[in-house]
Amino acid sequence: MRSMIIPAIVSADRDLPANAKLLYGEMFNREYDAISCFSIMTNKQLAELCNIKEDTVYRLLRKLSKKGYIRIEYENEGTPFKERKIRLLVGPYDHFARV
After folding, report:
1. What is the pLDDT of residue 93?
2. Cα separations (Å) of 11 from 14, 26, 84?
3. Average pLDDT over residues 89-93
4. From the CB of residue 95, how many other CB atoms can be counted at a distance below 10 Å?
5. DSSP 29
6. Spatial separation of the C-alpha atoms in residues 20 and 8, rounded to whole Å
7. Domain 8-88 classification at class level
8. DSSP-based three-state secondary structure for 85
9. Of 47, 56, 73, 77, which shows the fewest CB atoms inside 10 Å?
10. Quick check: helix, strand or coil at residue 56?
11. 27, burial (CB in 10 Å: exposed 0-12, middle 13-18, buried 19+)
12. pLDDT in tens, 31-63
């Protein structure tokens, strides 16, 4: 059994669906463990990890991005080999609401 860390500011956000918090927690724990494999995972892989649908992952990532919790960057945009990187912008000690 493993535990999951979700930064307080993310878990306390009442506008964020529970699955978005779960998705953030999965990505955060992978980065925190120095694996960082979420940045190269597809929406399908993230969906399987969180037991949700692919289109739900897409919507949740957009919500997390709009709220300022993640930044999605694309390399080689415009080519068939576009690579996505998801940068987490909230860490374990970000407890306070943003103004």
Report:
1. 61
2. 8, 13, 25
3. 72
4. 10
5. H
6. 14
7. mainly alpha
8. strand
9. 77
10. helix
11. buried
12. 665 544 456 678 898 999 899 999 999 999 999
